[in-house]
Design a protein that fits this description.
single chain; alpha+beta; Chloramphenicol Acetyltransferase; 14 strands; globular
Length: 461
């Protein structure tokens, strides 16, 4: 039985009935000319069922879900029940996006079965606009957001005439990597040097921690681990029911703001979220005097590393106490830059350790009383996962939207995850259904926030 790294086991340990720990995605496809939505749905469903050769990542499950062994080791299933893992459904009439989002909301709150490989794919037809949707659920112990998007991209082609579409678990697709020159085998001297390098990084943990702490005390732009965020209606215990909202905007609008303000696209995304959250909390007469703090995951993946989990994280002030959108944006940019500057000054193991310290409160969130009586370290997780930069197709069907469906948690009733496609940036908002009323209104506030940022950018020389 293979050992389960802590970066994977922690998602199993943290899972409860109220806190499912799977990530998901909602993809929308436009059928090629001459093919109906029903025919495309049938083709996807049949292709997935016929792909019987399954990559090991899609065959593994906890070794024993009823014992501690299920948190430290993996086992592998040889027989996959495709009737269970691959599902097909037709939306009720009239088949609006509202019905699609309702379907995802209702299904995303259900736990994945630990006695089976922990994934599901739902092929969905019945949309009134003629598109076909694919909703996926994969446990976070298997993949993080970057890995999940990689799987999607490998399944698709940039050639609209390509008819070799397969299933995400096809080993030929999962093993696909960019062609790179073969690297020479490391010498004994380099291996010994690598051991000393890791030892040096570990030995440098204490000085690195001291440096981070000093920066937190001396630089007002840096949000250090251990500092507290204000308590809000987001920082509550949650139930298992979910509500999902999604929308896309033209990425050219966001790039224009970033270019005019000489900042990054991610800075604009975070500022959009900050403006929307401020407006949403004002709607509910619940805006705190102190600024909200966001945890922003930072991918540690490289181009040729393995799929799985490799993530650190930074804390960013959202400046929600600032009514002026320009000043709010500048505060966010200053906070983001300082946090990135700190994490880039660390060695890889030290950067992962800082991310672990930033996310540490989540490990105790399910303990009774912790959420109610302990001040939060951050109020929300905002993730931006870069997506494909060109149009992609599955057997000629054009990918028309990719919406991440992430994880609300105890004390974090809302999660915002963003990914990009060739022409759009796609927001996926997942929240605790009972604890966050009128979640859909956040989409309107995001649109208003982007318009405010565009006005700010247009006034700059």
């Amino acid at each position: 039985m293979p050992y389960m790294p802590v970066t994977e086991s922690m998602f199993l340990i943290a899972e409860t009935r109220e806190q499912p720990m799977h990530v998901g995605g909602l993809q929308l496809f436009v059928p090629p000319e001459g093919q109906s939505a029903t025919e495309l749905a049938e083709e996807i469903f049949a292709t997935f069922h016929q792909c019987k050769d399954v990559h090991p990542m899609f065959r593994k499950r906890p070794a024993s879900p009823v014992t501690l062994l299920g948190h430290v080791a993996w086992s592998y299933d040889d027989d996959i029940d495709f009737d269970y893992h691959v599902r097909r459904t037709v939306l009720p009439r009239p088949g609006r996006i509202l019905e699609l989002l309702r379907y995802v909301s209702l299904n995303h709150g259900a736990l994945l079965d630990r006695f089976r490989p922990m994934w599901e794919f739902h092929v969905i037809e019945g949309l009134e606009d003629g598109r076909v949707a694919l909703y996926s659920k994969l446990h976070h112990s298997l993949v993080d957001g970057v890995s999940a998007l990689r799987l999607l991209e490998r399944t698709l082609s940039n050639d609209p005439d390509d008819r070799n579409g397969s299933a995400p678990w096809d080993p030929e697709l999962v093993n696909r990597r960019k062609r790179r020159p073969a690297r020479p085998s490391p010498s004994i001297a380099s291996r010994i040097g690598g051991v000393f390098d890791v030892a040096g990084q570990i030995a440098g943990m204490a000085p690195a921690a001291a440096k981070v702490a000093l920066t937190g005390m001396t630089d007002p732009d840096f949000v250090a681990p251990g500092l507290t965020a204000p308590r809000t209606i987001l920082d509550v215990a949650i139930g298992s029911a979910r509500r999902f909202a999604a929308q896309q905007w033209e990425i050219s609008r966001i790039r224009t703001v970033a270019s005019e303000m000489q900042i990054t696209v991610n800075d604009v995304v975070v500022a959009m979220c900050a403006g929307a959250l401020r407006a949403y909390l004002i709607d509910h007469d619940a805006l705190p005097d102190k600024p909200l703090v966001a945890s922003v995951p930072v991918s540690m993946h490289t181009d040729d590393d393995k799929d799985g989990n490799a993530v650190s994280g930074i804390l960013v002030s959202l400046a929600t106490d600032q009514p002026d959108p320009e000043r709010r944006l500048r505060s966010i940019v200053a906070s983001t830059r300082k946090s990135k500057e700190v994490i880039r000054g660390l060695r890889p193991l030290q950067a992962l350790a800082l991310g672990a310290a930033n996310f540490a409160p989540l490990a105790f969130a399910t303990i009774p009383g912790v959420v109610q009586y302990t001040p939060p370290q951050f109020n929300i997780i905002i993730s931006n996962v870069p997506g494909p930069k060109e149009h992609l197709y599955w057997n000629g069907a054009r990918l028309d939207g990719v919406y991440p469906v992430s994880i609300p948690m105890e004390g974090l009733a809302l999660n915002i995850t963003v990914t990009s496609t060739a022409e759009h940036i796609n927001f996926g908002l997942i929240g605790a259904r009972a604890q966050l009323p009128s979640l859909q209104r956040l989409l309107t506030h995001l649109d208003t926030s982007l318009e405010e940022l565009e006005k700010v950018a247009s006034t700059k020389p």
